[in-house]
Specification:
The protein has 83 residues and is an all-alpha fold. It has one domain. It is flat.
Amino acid sequence: MDQRIKSVKELPGLFVQACRAASGYFASIEVLLVVAMAGLMVAGLFLAAMGETSSIAAFATVLAYFTARPILHAKGILKWPFL
């Protein structure tokens, strides 16, 4: 997808085209979980910067997910290609 846009009006069309090209990749529940964990990590960092103790829960959830994921793969509960 090496396309050059010449105006701002072309941007929505290019965005839709990129989303269609990547739709197979984002159909995976595993990718959605990783994106959710990234968002939770950002939220945890924001809460930590604000001095909230609830940031510990966000960090613990992210750590638990990324610790449990390889174990679930090793036991065969989660399998490739996650679709």
